[in-house]
Amino acid sequence: MSRSAVGIILRAEWRAWRNRIAKANPLRVVGLVLFALLGGTVFGGFLFALAAAAGHLLPSARDAMLAGAFTALSVLMLVVGFPSVIATYFAGRDLMQLVLAPVRSLEIFLARSLFAMSANLLVAVVFLIFVAGVGAGSGASPVYYLLALVLVFVQVLLVTALQATFMAAVLRWVPARIARDVAVAVATIAGGGLYLAWNLTLRQTLGSFTPRHQPDLSNLVSSLQRIEWLPSSWPGHALSAVIEGNTSTALVWTGVTLVFAIVLVGAAALLYERTLLAGLGLLGGVPSRWRTRRRKPPRVATRGAGSPGFAIARKDWIAYRRDIRRLSRFLPAMIFLLAYAVLLIRPGRGVDLFWNDVFVVSFVSLFMSMMFATTAIPAERRGYQLLRLAPVTAWQLIRAKVLFTLVPVLALTGVISLGLSIVGGNSPWKTLQVALLAVWLGVGCVCIGVSAGAIDPNFESSDDRRSVGIIGTFAAMGGELAFGLFSVGALALFYLAASLAAGNPVAGLPVSATPAFAVLSAVVAVALAAAGAAVVWLMLWLASSHLRGFEDSIATN
Amino acid sequence: MSQAHSAVEARHLVKGYGIVRAVRDVSFEVSRGEIFGFLGANGAGKTTTLRMLCGLIRPTAGTALIDGFDVFAQPMEAKARLGYLDEEPFIHPHLTGREFLDYIADLYRMPRGPERQQRMERLLGLFELADRDGELIGAYSHGMKQKIGLASLLIREPSVLLLDEPTNGLDPRSARLVKDLLEELAARGTTVLLSTHILEVAQALCRRIAIMDHGNLVATGTMEDLRAQAGSAQATLEDLFLRLTAGPESSALIERLLAPQP
């Protein structure tokens, strides 16, 4: 009897995955597992406790919470898991081989489903903890947990099928080479819009929260009731009905959810059969022509020797504008950044306007450098070998990348900090201080970000989000947080020193307003600023050392 | 640099990955203006050796010299004189061919101006890429990528060329063009170290040939030297290669493959 193609494909995928693990550095694998276990226990425990408390204390909001959780799960999966779905169903290189083999499209679809769902399943685990927490807080029966497990899995299946269907639809209208990026951009913007709307509702709801008063949940509940027609909220209604012991209602919601999932998975499988061949064009990724009209003769510098730093920056600028994949990530991220910046402009009660501006500038610097700077060197991809072959030192490369990345970071941070000062009516002196802080933080964070990317680059990744390894990501986050805290701490201590020197004690601080304490504060402030600079220097040194020692081969991407 | 130095010199190069020795004590010299063939079966260690010579891989032991400069001790001097073409050329997919050449020229600090511009136009014309203006390299065919990779070496006129399968993916006319070009460059003093699987190319172009097998250099010399070493005055390069990289004869393998199953 011939073996099923689904089994053969799954076995090959399993072997490939096992080989990747076996090839990885064992220390790294153990570290990752330990980190995941520790992080999962702490985060999961916190989430479970929070959900249990909410389930116990807010019985009137249970249905809204569960419906909202399943909708949030769907939105998050839609955004986070989409690249995995596209890569697995449409863009994997091994698909070519499967298409050439005597294997039916449906078998490919079924075999790839488990891997297509992988990212969505990871997201779903977090929500499963939340749903279990609500059940525990509400004293739900074991049926609740069993049904929750089934419905979360069905939701994952449903969203994955929706993503495959959406991709198939996009492939009908958009050339295959750019379809992946168009689809990801649309999904990210749609998901981001929903997330921001949700966040605004939450802020409105919790804005009036004080420790003595419960928050007014009516706004949140009514917002969620408005979306209860969404299929994504149906499993939540089913679970809420189980908690209340309403079996018939639970059966109805579960039934419609299952029927909807079956219809969507069926539609996805059908459409997949029709678009698989069109989707194989996704293997490309670079539009064939950049300009359709005859362009003007290129502007060529006519004097002087070529400058490697300038050449790298110019090449980055040209490539960035043309890389549709990068733009499709960049635009939604910018929307998020600007939306958050606008949200943060309004300071909370009791927060000084100047320190609110300091916080916003710090946030923007950190966000921008994480987005631009960490990927600056890994984004060279295979072209990095050209730099290694050229008479360019690691320091020259890092300097070129820092200078190129600084331009957008400082420009945006500057615009936001100036905007803040104008809106808040800051004095010119305070505006100057915020602007100087923006430059200091911008330079430091960009240096740290570029260095972190150089410490742990993944040159083979064609996706910027995977182009920096876990060590690099943590180095960037840790380094930038440390630098930001040292810098803002130094600024605060300078303020304290000035206040103490002027003979004004600070309320709540057990420090008398004497010149000695003023000098001590200033000295500690300088030490903190120096510590921040040391973090930057250390990161740059590590990056330079790592780039000098790099000798891996970089496969074609 | 003084002319006394060889253009390329590998001194006892060794590269190990854990317990695996990819390259074992390889030494050879290539004179100025020589085309030197580098042959070997898949996995013999040719690419690793080339990458050690151009500074992409640090040897476990030994030294690589380009025009007398140690690739790792004096990297700036060595790299300025060296051009390396990988079997999959390193390119930037989002640049056009012209922009890529401009990028490389700047990276190697070539003086800007009309001379550089003319050279760029001539190279694009030579490799039939001039009318591809506006097309991104990422959308080029493999052969076109190979051509732009070669053009990116020639734009800056390095004195030493290390080429890993340069005719790979080229149509017959372009392959012929590359062969003629390499001969002309060598005649003008450029040193070429050519790694290839196409034995006819090696036999036609190279004055001396080195053959690698399982990380070892098993033979080096002119065709006559190799024939003498193999004890066969009439042997072709293919015969010599098969004899020096001894494995089961292909006829025996085919017989075994096609033999009826018991």
Description:
The complex is a heterodimer of chains A (557) and B (262). With 557 residues, chain A is mostly helical. Chain A has helices at residues 5-23, 26-57, 62-80, 82-91, 94-100, 105-116, 118-138, 142-173, 176-206, 218-226, 234-243, 247-279, 308-322, 324-345, 353-372, 384-389, 394-424, 428-455, 470-501, 515-549. In chain A, helix 8 (142-173) runs parallel beside helix 12 (247-279) and helix 13 (308-322) crosses helix 17. The radius of gyration of chain A is 27 Å and the shape is globular. The two termini of chain A are 39 Å apart. Chain B is α/β, with parallel strands linked by helices. Chain B has two domains: 1-81 and 158-222, Rossmann fold, CATH 3.40.50; 94-156, no CATH class. Helix content of chain B is 38%, strand content 23%. Chain B has ten helices and ten strands. Chain B has helices at residues 46-54, 75-80, 97-107, 114-126, 142-154, 172-187, 199-205, 223-230, 237-244, 250-258; strands at 8-17, 20-30, 35-40, 61-66, 69-70, 82-85, 160-164, 191-195, 208-213, 216-221. In chain B, strand 9 and strand 10 (216-221) form a beta hairpin. The interface between A and B is large, with 46 and 44 residues.
Which features would summarize this protein structure in a list?
heterodimer, A: mainly alpha, 0% strand, B: Rossmann fold, 2 domains, 6-stranded mixed β-sheet, 4-stranded antiparallel β-sheet
Overall mean pLDDT of chain B stands at 87
Question: Tell me about the biggest sheet of chain A?
Answer: none
Average predicted local confidence, pLDDT of chain A: 81
Name the helix and strand elements of chain B from N-terminus to C-terminus, one letter apiece. EEEHEEHEHHHEHEHEEHHH
Order of strands in the sheet with most strands of chain B:
6-7-8-3-9-10
**How large is the radius of gyration of chain A?**
27 Å
Under CATH, the topology of the largest domain in chain B can be stated as: Rossmann fold
**Distance separating the two termini of chain B:** 67 Å
Q: What is the strand content of chain B?
A: 15-25%
DSSP strand tally of chain B: 10
Structural class of chain B: alpha/beta
What characterizes the major β-sheet of chain B? 6 strands, mixed
How many beta-strand elements of chain A? 0
Number of discrete domains of chain B: 2
